[in-house]
């Protein structure tokens, strides 16, 4: 059954009615505790509208993972003021529920980009176009993504021969960033005192067990520590059953710093440069509630608006391939051939399989009544199926053509 489910509860009386009321009260009490905006910095947008001239040392465009981390770092020293600008709003309560992760692509917390038709990608989709989800909300895509956390393999970093990004350097950074609570038997050692909170969910659903069994039958075993081939449970960016988006990670601990200013529902429409003199970025044009104005940066404008909007903003500001800008009559500030090119993305190939119902499982994952029980369990205890991402927590790292690489041994 789909849509709103209606129940006739008029016949419930006596102890059952009391239990029902207790449940309702508990639900309401707990509902209040999820998705509170006061864990985030206060919104400064209305003050910005009132000020005649606005100037900050640093302007950060985009409150996603990168923007929140940059805001935390730069405000460490209180001699600089930082304005963090986000086009979206505070994350809605439903983004906090890990099990609802699939509900947000296409919502108002997504930019709702669609890729253009081409002859290779998305051929099986309606109109051969795929949605290209990007978070439009404080926390950015980290507030609506699939919550899985894993470090890249050492080879991913070492193969570029770039000392600053070697696996030795990056693993020290990961150690510092992570705050993992849980068993020690995972493939990676995780840091335990950083900002990014990590846990395994308590989901133990039937489909995942089946997958473990199927892979074991083909010879794959649980992944030994630091071996990188085998079966494992994904660590998630969650804490106590709630999503830990990157605004919570990086902004919540510093939300009251007097040199941090945050403005939501604020669209940056362009970067303004001192052109043609020295081509320095001196500020941004923004739009709030239909009011357009300029905000000046004394030192730097930092673009952390994500892969699509970073390029879009640069192009709209005259920074990009000269010919492309000329065709669109955008005055040239800097001829940079690579802007808007070379986007790389990983494919997701969903595969659907039919499985037998589980005879001996305490719950059947697919029955609607179980889903209702899951909702109550989640609201009351932050446990159960909604506290994780279901089958997506299972990961099999399998041998491919790269199997000759040294990182496997
Ligand atoms: C469906 C999906 C699932 C994913 N699952 C995982 C996963 O399980 N694990 C994982 O590690 N990664 C996952 N990712 C990737 C990961 O979430 C992103 O790589 C990461 O969040 C990107 O962070 P970012 O700060 O670079 O950019 P974004 O998160 O895109 O942040 C950019 C921010 O800038 C704001 N912005 C953009 N333009 C403007 C403007 N003009 N003015 C003002 N603000 C603006 C946006 O609203 C946004 O908040 C997933 C991505 C998607 C799409």
TrEMBL record:
<feature type="domain" description="Glucose-methanol-choline oxidoreductase N-terminal">
    <location>
        <begin position="135"/>
        <end position="158"/>
    </location>
</feature>
<dbReference type="InterPro" id="IPR036188">
    <property type="entry name" value="FAD/NAD-bd_sf"/>
</dbReference>
<dbReference type="InterPro" id="IPR012132">
    <property type="entry name" value="GMC_OxRdtase"/>
</dbReference>
<keyword id="KW-0274">FAD</keyword>
<keyword id="KW-0285">Flavoprotein</keyword>
<comment type="similarity">
    <text>Belongs to the GMC oxidoreductase family.</text>
</comment>
<dbReference type="GO" id="GO:0050660">
    <property type="term" value="F:flavin adenine dinucleotide binding"/>
</dbReference>
<dbReference type="InterPro" id="IPR000172">
    <property type="entry name" value="GMC_OxRdtase_N"/>
</dbReference>
<dbReference type="GO" id="GO:0016614">
    <property type="term" value="F:oxidoreductase activity, acting on CH-OH group of donors"/>
</dbReference>
<protein>
    <recommendedName>
        <fullName>Glucose-methanol-choline oxidoreductase N-terminal domain-containing protein</fullName>
    </recommendedName>
</protein>
<dbReference type="Pfam" id="PF00732">
    <property type="entry name" value="GMC_oxred_N"/>
</dbReference>
